[in-house]
Amino acid sequence: MEYEQLTPIVEELTKVLEGKASREDIEQQVSTYANVYRIEDTRRIRDAILKKYGMGPATDVSFVTADHVQKKIADLLGNENRVDILAKVVYVEKKTVTIKGTMRHLLSGTLGDETGTAQFTVWDGEHCELEQNATYMFKNAYTKKWNDRVQINIGNQGAISKENVTLDVSANRPAGQVSAGVKMKIADLTGSEPSVDLEVKAIVAERKTVAIRGESREIISGIVGDETGTAQFTVWNADGVDMADGCCYALKGAYTKLWNDQVQVNIGNRGTVEPIDKDIVTTSAPVIQPKPAVQAPGEKKKIGELTGSESNVDILAKVISAEKKDVTIKGEPRTIISGVLGDETGSAAFTAWEGGSLDMETGCVYLVSNAYTKLWNDRIQINLGNRCTVTKEDVEISAAEPKPIAYSSSVAKICDLREGIGSLTVSGKILSVENRTINSRGEDKQVWSGLIADETGKIQFSAWNDFGLAEGDAVRIENAYIRGWKGIPQLNIGDRSAVDKIDDTFGDLSAAAASQKTVGEITRTGGGLDMSVTGTVLDIRAGSGIIKRCPECKRSILSNECLTHGTVEPVADLRMKIIIDDGTGAMGAIVNRDVTEKLTGISLSDAQEYAAENGESSVPKLLGERILMRNVTFRGNVMSDEYGPSMIVTDAAPEDRDINAEAEKLLGEVQEALM
């Protein structure tokens, strides 16, 4: 909502809450309700804020309106604003997260009733306690859809009451599950189906462990096919799902998306994978790329006008060079054409992704319709996908010679680098370098990667050409750019970069001090390698204590079953998941066994003996007694996503604090501010 729409309610609340809240606090709260929680009724916003300051009704009757209803979980659509749900808590976990720089305590987990299950979040969970397997009435909840799954949210206007009711939870129909998907063949998919049933053969099925929103998850991905074609697929929750190459399956309740002009079949929480006893003959047709019945004309542009962000563009250009290639993309053979297009304004590389049925002759002019463009290594690339048409034109074009580009490059220290910065100059010492081969866009390419450091910090680098980098070299790199991976900046040395050796003025940086940062700085600029943060340990989270790991892959496991290696003899380990606050913000951290033992003085064997007498669930509390509210300097790599930063701790040291000196300093600042 616009500021002008919110001004009247801000003025009213400022008068009513005089002495209890400042205008700035009220503006922030009103904006949060309107623009974060998406509450459009200003009366509801007013009553919720009054209730927060003890001036509202004892029960939240202001939100029980005519459209306020009670629903079963399977009937939820993901767009309810005010709904009551009677459900059992199947699983619940307390979390502390940083949202827009503010630390929030919340509860999340799974709710269930006799019709199905759904994920839930209690956004004000600091003073809320929910018992697992107990039944509650959740009043005035609201629902959203994420990744095609319904999520139940209990905000400030919600209420929770424990009910003496027994519910049998069904795990067969997650929230939002439709009765049946539409039966289709792969060739008929458009990439926009919300629920579809397919009978397919798994051509390639690979189980992987991926990080999604900072959590490890097992998925299955690959290629499936039927007699009409093939498509990429992903099973987003592989627990209890087995798929093997060459076997046939019924995919029920799947949904489809378009990515890079290709249909992808997704099996989420509301979908199922069932083996079927039949043989499906698959075609060798390529991954389906749907063609709309009517394609809107693209915007006409010259090559010199392209920005690298066009999704639908028409280009009249001469083929300066063209080469047909056979490549393998995600396990599927494909013929492409790549080369250079040019007109009187410039030239650019191009790729025709369906080159098997296409001929493009060097020196000829073509009208390329409905192409899309990307930036790669700071250069424009023209892509001819399945929606693109190529028409030979009987015209003459004088293609301009590629013009040298003059780049300006700003000088920066490594500690100041963050994602998105381009055209920069960095000097440092190469700590490590290795050469490897990667597959990029169907082609094998050499890349040189490693670590570079200066006196302010370290950063990973990738060089896309052989610049002769060697361990121990001191170098000056011009016209590099920064890309991010999980919030960690990475230095990219591309075609237009220049690398020169310089006199070594850095000394031995292998054991250099970590880059000292505050949580607030990290939240603003993103993560990085080898960072140091000093703060107070505020919370020890679920997942702390004694855990079991697979002896082969070292992943944490349950019930002695590793998803990759099957039944194993687990190896015990000790860790902590904690929340650090340094006054500028809060962030999560994962502390390994060595550092946990160092900080708490509790060894793994000590924890096992304690667990034998008191149960494993008591170990996190024991660790918490030794670490909570202590001031500690943590060192490690920091990743960052939409939930905020998180550190993988490599070392830590307690900090001695002079509480009296700090109190006197604070008192002096307060007195100075009042004078």
Helix and strand topology:
Elements lengths: L2 H14 L6 H14 L5 H11 L16 E2 L12 E17 L2 E12 L2 E7 L12 E12 L2 E6 L4 E5 L18 E2 L12 E17 L2 E12 L2 E7 L12 E12 L2 E6 L4 E4 L23 E2 L12 E17 L2 E12 L2 E7 L12 E12 L2 E6 L4 E5 L16 E2 L12 E17 L2 E12 L2 E7 L10 E12 L2 E6 L4 E4 L13 E2 L2 H7 L2 E13 L4 E5 L11 E2 L3 E2 L3 E11 L4 E6 L1 H8 L3 H11 L4 H9 L3 E11 L2 E11 L4 H16 L1
Parallel strand pairs: 1-2, 4-6, 8-9, 11-13, 15-16, 18-20, 22-23, 25-27, 29-30, 35-37
Antiparallel strand pairs: 2-3, 2-5, 3-4, 5-6, 5-7, 9-10, 9-12, 10-11, 12-13, 12-14, 16-17, 16-19, 17-18, 19-20, 19-21, 23-24, 23-26, 24-25, 26-27, 26-28, 30-34, 30-36, 31-34, 32-33, 34-35, 36-37
Helix pairs in contact: 1-2, 2-3
Q: Which labels suit this protein?
A:
OB fold (Dihydrolipoamide Acetyltransferase, E2P); mainly beta; five-stranded mixed barrel; 675 residues; globular; 8 helices
> Numbering strands along the chain, what is their spatial order in the largest sheet?
2-3-4-6-5
| Chain oligomer state | single chain
Helical proportion? 10-25%
CATH topological fold name of the largest domain: OB fold (Dihydrolipoamide Acetyltransferase, E2P)
- Which CATH architecture of the largest domain? Beta Barrel
CATH class group of the largest domain? Mainly Beta
CATH superfamily of the largest domain: Nucleic acid-binding proteins
Number of strands: 37
Structural class: mainly beta
Task: Tell me, rounded to a whole number, the average pLDDT.
Answer: 81
Number of H- or I-type helical stretches: 8
User: What portion of residues belong to β-strands?
Assistant: over 45%
Low-confidence spans: pLDDT under 50, at least 5 residues?
A: 57-67, 171-179, 285-296, 403-408
Largest sheet: 5 strands, mixed, barrel
